[in-house]
Amino acid sequence: MNAALHSPVPVTLEWNGVRLEPLAPHHADGLRAAAADGELWQLRITSVPTPEETDAYIDKAIAMRPSRLAFAVVDAASGAVMGTTSFHDIVPELDRLEIGYTWYARSRQRSHVNTTCKLLLLGHAFDTLGCAVVGLRTDIFNHTSQRAIERLGAKRDGVLRHHALRRDGTVRDTVMYSIVRGEWPEIKAHLHYKLHQSGGR
């Protein structure tokens, strides 16, 4: 069994103008600013914290280690926090983890940021940690997220009915996706091609 996945540790990943830093209390102001770009906490289908909840959001993410490793998504040139993403539901016995808890400031959406983040995270998961499978999940009503996951090349595994609470107290169905190790080389090539077609940024 892969030792790195047994004992995952916070790591900094950087490429293509994006740096993923282990989420820490000093990211709080930047995370608040990113969430305020579009008032993302108003969206019922995501778990973006309100300004008042941001410190607790970070503390909770850190407390979930080692089953969750949260990152601040940072603009490498300016140091501005653009959002956050995580490895989560890490199961060493299965060489499996998931990528989620992902959101970006509205001005950074539909840019190179998400594709770059996924290349960094998937590359670390498959090439460094030796994962056999990487999962992704989203709300049944988050059609934008579903399209983004499908554009990565992930396969839709199914829907978990009555699966999790939303912030407004309603219960959501969760759409599950996955990428297995053998699919990674083609997906990696496809994501690099997409970035090239868009000028890389």
Description:
It comes from Rugamonas fusca. With about 200 residues, this protein is of the alpha+beta class. The chain has a single domain, classed as Gcn5-related N-acetyltransferase (GNAT) (Aminopeptidase, 3-Layer(aba) Sandwich), CATH 3.40.630. Helix content is about 30%, strand content about 30%. It is built from six helices and eight strands, in the order αββααβββαβαββα. The chain has helices at about 5, 30-35, 55-65, 110-130, 145-150, 185-195; strands spanning about 15, 20, 70-75, 80-90, 95-105, 135-140, 155-165, 170-180. The protein has an eight-stranded mixed β-sheet with strand order 1-2-3-4-5-6-8-7, with helices on both faces. A hairpin with a 2-residue loop joins strand 1 (about 15) and strand 2 (about 20). Helix 4 (about 110-130) runs antiparallel to helix 6 (about 185-195). It is globular and about 45 Å long.
**Low-pLDDT regions:** none
CATH superfamily: Gcn5-related N-acetyltransferase (GNAT)
Oligomer description: single chain
Amino- and carboxy-terminal Cα gap: 37 Å
User: Can you tell me the CATH topology?
Assistant: Aminopeptidase
- Integer tally of domains: 1
**Helical proportion, percent range:** 25-40%
Organism: Rugamonas fusca
Keywords: Transferase
Pfam family, one: Acetyltransf_3
GO molecular function, one term: acyltransferase activity, transferring groups other than amino-acyl groups
